[in-house]
Amino acid sequence: MSKRKPSLNNAGMRARPETVEPPVKQLRGLRRQVLEIIDEVLSDSSQATDAVREQLRQHIAAHPGHPEEALLAHLTSLRSEQPSQPDPAPQDNPAPQGDPSSQDPSSPRLEAVLRDRMLMTAFQPVFDLTTATVVGAEALTRFVSDSGDPADFWFTEAEDTGLRTDLEFAALESGLTAALDLPPHLFVALKLSEAVCLDPRLPVLFEQTPVAPARMILEVSGKFPPDQAASLDAAVAPLRSAGMRLSIENTGSFFAGASHILRLKPEMIKLDWSLTAALNQDPLRQELVEAEVGFARKIGAVLTAQRIETEAELATLKGLGVTIGQGYHLGRPSVQPREWAKWSGRARHLASPGGRGRNLRSWLNLT
């Protein structure tokens, strides 16, 4: 059973780092996102959006000092201007209205997000740790809402209401569209659940995107059930044949999911965040990471670290032979194409000091 959204009023609640931020930080993060969205809309110079920009300016003037309310009012007015959709045709065999087992609980706000695509993509830069240059970007979903809820809450709510797959596809569409504004030499990492990997809509979506397959890395959690490994392998095989690459997130315990990794032979293994946090203070975890570096090298994969938060963590990872990484210490997620444009430096050599890492020049298709 999936987790329900915890109450922020529960004083005894303990949150995983970076999953639930203090309310003040949530509000600051929401305001920053809102201001970025407003700035992007107002900076558009096309004549086709003159009326939209003027309308947004009016809402900002009507809500001085409250950009969140101004943007919400703006989006609401845009929705009200859209032509109403006809009611769907009645089904021949509708589900019984009184049977809870035949229906998922509704979520009006999720239905609104899916209907009006009130989500957007932020990209976090992924670095070559040996040259401090950006080699890729991970797509992260951000929701336009006044609740300030992290993305994890939205996807948990979607799972509880039977909308998880639909929400993931909406996030994928947003990420692929936004990826067109990234520097063209960067790879694009896209998170996929096992359900989405097995969904027949996935290859159709990728066929319709102009993003080159060789730029895409499909990130899958290493926690999928053992009996799904064969199905997952079969589902992603055509995508990989087209040039896409596969990344599997290790779950944190030593070689957890190693059988999956050996079967699927991914091009990338992503260290779980629990191995990175305060790694410089834990010799035992350092040995585990070093062992995983060797494991990745033997199967021809790249090992990448996430959530690098301090200079000490970065130095320790580099010393252990990790060559690729991301985290707030290196670069924060951004929804601004102007910020993405700054990630234009090209990595020349991605082997770690001492030759322990893999030369990724050809792997990343850098020229």
Please work out how many helical segments DSSP would assign. Answer: 14
> How large is the radius of gyration?
22 Å
Uncertain regions spanning at least 5 consecutive residues? 1-24, 82-102, 346-359
Taking the alpha carbons of the first and last residues, their distance comes to 47 Å
Mean pLDDT reading: 77
Helix and strand content put the structural class at: alpha/beta
Strand order of the largest sheet: 1-2-3-4-5-6-7-8
The biggest sheet amounts to: 8 strands, mixed, barrel
Q: What is the subunit organization of this protein?
A: single chain
Helix proportion: 40-55%
Global morphology? globular
Description:
- This protein is α/β, with parallel strands linked by helices and 367 residues long.
- It is 41% helix and 13% strand.
- It is built from 14 helices and eight strands.
- The chain has helices spanning 23-43, 50-62, 67-81, 108-116, 151-160, 164-179, 194-197, 201-208, 229-241, 258-264, 273-276, 283-298, 311-319, 337-340, and strands spanning 119-128, 133-143, 187-192, 216-221, 245-249, 268-270, 302-305, 324-325.
- It has an eight-stranded mixed beta barrel with strand order 1-2-3-4-5-6-7-8.
- A hairpin with a 4-residue loop joins strand 1 (119-128) and strand 2 (133-143).
- Helix 2 (50-62) crosses helix 3 (67-81) and helix 5 (151-160) packs antiparallel against helix 6.
- It is globular.
- Residues 1-24, 82-102 and 346-359 have low confidence and may be disordered.
